[in-house]
Structure formats: C-alpha cells, structure tokens
Amino acid sequence: MRRKTKATSIDIAHRAGVSQATVSRVLSGSPLVNAETRKRVEAVARELNYKVDRHASSLRTQRSATLALLLFEDPTADESHINPFFHAMLGSITRACARHGQDLLVSFQQLSDDWHADYEDSMKADGMILLGYGDYLEYRDKLQSLVEQGTRFVRWGAVMPGQPGVSIGCDNHAGGRLVGEHLLALGRRRIAFLGDASSHYPEFFERYRGCDAALQAAGLAMDPALQVDAESSEEAGDAAARTLLARGQGFDAVFAASDLIAVGAMRALAEAGLQVPADVSVVGFDDIPMARFTRPPLTTVAQDTTRAGELLVETLLRQVRGEPAESTLLPVTLVVRRSCGAGQ
Amino acid sequence: MRRKTKATSIDIAHRAGVSQATVSRVLSGSPLVNAETRKRVEAVARELNYKVDRHASSLRTQRSATLALLLFEDPTADESHINPFFHAMLGSITRACARHGQDLLVSFQQLSDDWHADYEDSMKADGMILLGYGDYLEYRDKLQSLVEQGTRFVRWGAVMPGQPGVSIGCDNHAGGRLVGEHLLALGRRRIAFLGDASSHYPEFFERYRGCDAALQAAGLAMDPALQVDAESSEEAGDAAARTLLARGQGFDAVFAASDLIAVGAMRALAEAGLQVPADVSVVGFDDIPMARFTRPPLTTVAQDTTRAGELLVETLLRQVRGEPAESTLLPVTLVVRRSCGAGQ
DNA sequence: CTGAAAGCGCTTACAG
DNA sequence: CTGAAAGCGCTTACAG
C-alpha cells in the first residue's frame, strides 16, 4: 500500500547475509532456523518494515488465510436495514478471525444471487461463513450444491438433523421454552406469537415450538389464531401486531420472534391504547442493544454472540484443515426486564 | 475453495486450442482478441467454471482489487456495541465495492492499535477506508504518518481545512443549523446539547456550532451550561440527560449529537416525568432505523449513507489509480417526526 | 490478433 | 541448520 518500493525477502536476505529461503523460514516461524540467525533476520525485517507478500505466499501454498463472510438477505427486505443481531455477530466474527490470523472478506448478497460462483474458484477465501435470514427451503438447495462441490462453509442458523453442511446455531427451542415458562409463571395464558412459524423459517419455528412445549407441559397450547407471520423488522412487527389486534382474539402476552419485531409490536400496542406490561406482556429474542432502551425495557432471550463468532470461525478452520467438523447448538439465557411484568 | 482440482488458464487454453496468454487476455477483457476466439475461450471457461486465480493475478499486477475497511473505536467503548449508523455505512460500502469489482476486507481496531502495520506492506489491500469514532486529536498523528508513508486511505469524518489525507463527511454544520432553525421556529429558545463539543470530536462540535449559528442569527446563543459531554451510545445519552437535569438549568429542547444519545436521553427525560415533545423537544442525528420507532418518533438529521459509501470507494479508487482525490462534504436533510413537537 | 517467454515474491522438497 | 532451485498461476512487453 505504499508508493515507495516495498522490501522483499531478497532485500532482507542481502542485508542479513543469509539466503532468501532462510528469510522465508524465519518469517513463517519454521523451527529449522538457528536462534541467532533468526534474531538477525527478524531485526532486519523489522527495520525495513518487511511484511510477507500475501499473494506470493498464497499462490505458493494454495491457502489464502482469508475467510469470507456472506451476509445474505431476503430480496424483499429493505436493503439498508440489517438486523442489529447480525452486526453483533459480525463484530465477534471479525475478532475471532483476527485471533486466528485470518482476514475477513465481507460481502452482502441476495438470496437469489449465485453465491458459490464468486468465491469458489478464485481462491479469494479458504471457506465461507453464511449469515442471514431468508426462506430456508429456498436456499437449502444452494447449501446442498455447495456441499457437493466440496466447498467449505459454516452456516449460522437452526441446527437440525439431515441438513446439508455444518451449522452453528443457538438453542431456539430452549429459548422458546424459557419464554413460555416465564410467561406462565407470571400468570399469562394466551400467548400470541409474532413471526413466521413454519419450516420455511426454522429458527422462528423452533422458538414457537419451544414456547408451545412449555404450554403443553402445563396442559395448555399455543393458539394458531394468535400467530401472525412477520419477518425480522420493526415494520413487520408493527404490522403483525395490528393484524393480531384486528382479529379480536383475546391475548395477554406477545412473544415476538425477534427484538425488532417486539419493538414494532410495542408501538402498535401502545397506539391501540394497551399498556405493557399491565395489559400485555411482551418478550423478544436476540437481546439487541436497543432492548435495554425500549419503554418499558424489553424482556428477551440472549444468544452468546461472542462464543458464536468464535465457534463459527473455529469450525470453518477445522474444515479448511481437513479435520472433521460438526454442527453445534449454543445455550441461550432469558434476560428479564420490565416488559413482561416481572423483574427489575 | 473446492477440493477437486481447480482449472487453470492452461487447461482452458488446451481445450480452446489457443495459448495461455490468449486465455488471460480474454479474461481480463483485453481488446486485442478476435471476437471468435473470445467466444470460444469464454465458452470453455464457463464450462469448466474457471475463475482467474486472484493471488497469481495480484502478484503479477501488484494490485489486489481489494479495499480494507477499518472500523475503529474508542478503547473505552463497549466492544460489542457499534453505532447502527456505521452499519448502514458498512452496507453501502460493501455494495459500492461490489459495483467497482473490489473485494472488501473488514477489520475492527482499537484507536490504540497499530493500523498501518498490518495492511500496509503485505499487499492485502490497495487502500483503506477509515470509519470510527474516537478522539480526533489522538488519531490525527496516525493519519499524518499514513500520509507520509504514501498509504492510500479515505476517512469518514469531519471535513476541515488542513487535515491529513482525504476525508468524506456530511455537512455537520448545516445539519446543526437546520436543527437550530427548526427548534426556533417551534418557539424553543433554551436548547441543550448532549454530546462532546470540542475539537477532540469535530463532527459533534460542528453540529453544535451549526445550531449555535442558527441561534446567533436570531440574536440568541447556545448556553454552555446546557451542554453535556457524551459519546455516541444510549448509556451516555441517558447519563448526560441526568447530568443536565441535575444542573437545574431550564431548557425546552434537547439536541442530541446522535440518535443513540437521543434514545438514552428520552428514557432519562421520561423517568424524570418530562413529556416529549410537550415539555421538551428532542432532536437526534443520523436517522438510524430505530428513530422511526422511538416513542414519540424521533426528529433527526439524515445523512445519505448510500452516496457516502459510493463516494468513499470512488475517492479511494481514484487514489489507487494515482488520480487526484479530494475531500467532499455531503448534504444532509432534516427529517421531522413527532419528538420535536411539529410534524406528523 | 496471437504466441513464447520472463518474472511477480514467495515456500518447500532436495541436497548437503 | 542452510542454500540453490523449482514452481505456484497469472500478465504483459516483445516479436511476428
């Protein structure tokens, strides 16, 4: 990145009085170098601000020490509006990459785009991390063809048997159960669910089923009349809550499939003259930063994004090294704030 | 990224019955190729799913077709909490890079880290985009040394004469002025400012001064007793509003230096029993997605992030090509919602 | 318009 | 422990 001519390993070799091969050994941390020699070379390298040329190195080793992050979104979604939860993931993935000496190429894609076409054969990255919302049944085939092509990837999402490739996800079912149990303990019985609840969106669906499992354990069940589809956005949450209200079915709690949906729903509820939590408990999912600043503060389910990022990177690197890698489910925790009627 | 052996330009050459050089010419879009030959080569390349090896290409051309985005943060800031505004920028930068055929390497850094050490000489990127909040007087020296080393970079931030390097930023002064004029028109006179207002944080300072300019034009002025320092976060906004209230100085409007600060301040004001906008007008800056979903919805100043991302990338690429590049100021617009007392 | 050839800056068997 | 040499897959003057 400088205009001045860059130092090469040959320059270092001359100055240090060794061969270029030795310089390379020193800088790649090879043990086959005399300690004294190493010191001398390192000193010269530092002095000339020498850095190994990544392209030359990668060309030779056929490894790029780079991972690609593909953030994909539903084509119908607003372009500029990415779930804050994914931003937390982006941060933790970036840091995990840094810890593992990997660079991170970031790209936004539409679900409809041809993911594999680009990174696959140009050696830009050794593997890719897939992160996004969208119709699972739609991109499932894409995952399948990635597997068939031998592409290394990890995906953040629902972890289910028989999926193509390796997935890391949080325990959505357990999260839903925690929410259901908590609302039951607060005396709520008619729990509405705002978010898609079908195999097209398995993460939301698992949250729904977890909540349902809690109700069933108490001899109750989720009422399909209280479920309204919504993608993860404030707008969708607002619209879904209006739809719910318009149905005229009684409910005493809203379980929003994501915090964004919860924020939108809370606005719609307030405009309808309903008090949260006095009239309706509201619970979200994700624990985005804003959840502490809604009024009232939002009870929600927190996912460990730091661990998630680390695990995504580790699992992908395992594949890159040819080691076996498996899907993992991460635990979640219920964060109780005031919107449910209990707590602080 | 595939396990199967990758096709090279030589494979394509054999199959297409031309030399490897011709294949290279076709794939780099050279005009020196017969149309028929081009067609044949392209067909074979498509069939074998051939992609130019980026490392080989970059090694040869000494260009990486990759830009680096450094998101830096104040070391004191919460690691996981990045300003939503920067996420919008990240999205637009990513898309602009895609349009210009550039890959984007993303990295998070602390203000204290040694930025230049990493990307500078390893040829990972042709230039870098700097995006972050932090004490300007602290990182100014770093910018200066980047310039001296001939590193190509653009920075998002305040645009002022005599700055090291090239900056793209929005017209913070004009934004502040719009806010001041609007609040005056609504009959507000005592405008508090929540956010740092010193040359350490020139973007906030310009917003402050713009508002002050509007007041001065009306024979008034900002009252330093109504200014409270705050970095860009909800927590800081909450704390700053409490400090302001504790001072016991009367005020009828709050101009928050960012939407995040505004969100925190609105919570503190509500807890103090103040009505927005009846008792106090609140205006933010950035127009983050959440601004439409605060209660009441937040009046704020919108920056054109799409144009900003495009301009950052374009300006950086101009430098990479050795063309002159200059700092640019982008216009802003006032988005009137209900928190100021006017509008919708 | 096309081909043969040099060379980008490394890594890594191979030989000592 | 060290060096000489081959070669990773391209691009681009050079010659025709």
Automatic annotation (TrEMBL), chains A, B:
Pfam families, per the entry: LacI (PF00356), Peripla_BP_3 (PF13377)
InterPro entries cross-referenced by the UniProt entry: HTH_LacI, LacI/GalR-like_sensor, Lambda_DNA-bd_dom_sf, Peripla_BP_I
GO molecular function, one term: DNA binding
Swiss-Prot/TrEMBL keywords: DNA-binding, Transcription, Transcription regulation
The HTH lacI-type domain, residue ranges: 7-61
Protein name: LacI family DNA-binding transcriptional regulator
The organism of origin for this protein: Lysobacter korlensis
